[in-house]
Inverse folding.
């Protein structure tokens, strides 16, 4: 199933400015269904942004990509 990223627009507790934060990921077949899921499950404050196709972690104690542990959401066995 497709995975959708979300954003939250809220006031920053430290600065008081409106800021964009990352929200939780939503699994749904389409962007519209992800939005519907949020509306019916008390997550209406989330804005559905983009489809997540891959997560690439960093190697320990660095900013170097760890390609061996990447999660590819486009692979059939992970959908």
């Amino acid at each position: 199933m497709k995975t959708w990223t979300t954003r939250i627009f809220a006031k920053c507790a430290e600065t008081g400015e409106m800021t964009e934060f990352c929200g939780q990921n939503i699994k749904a077949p389409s962007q519209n269904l992800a939005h519907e899921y949020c509306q019916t499950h008390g997550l209406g404050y989330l804005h559905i942004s983009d489809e997540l196709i891959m997560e690439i972690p960093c190697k320990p104690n660095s900013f170097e990509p760890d390609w061996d542990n990447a999660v590819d959401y486009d692979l059939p066995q992970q959908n």
In short: The mean pLDDT is 92.
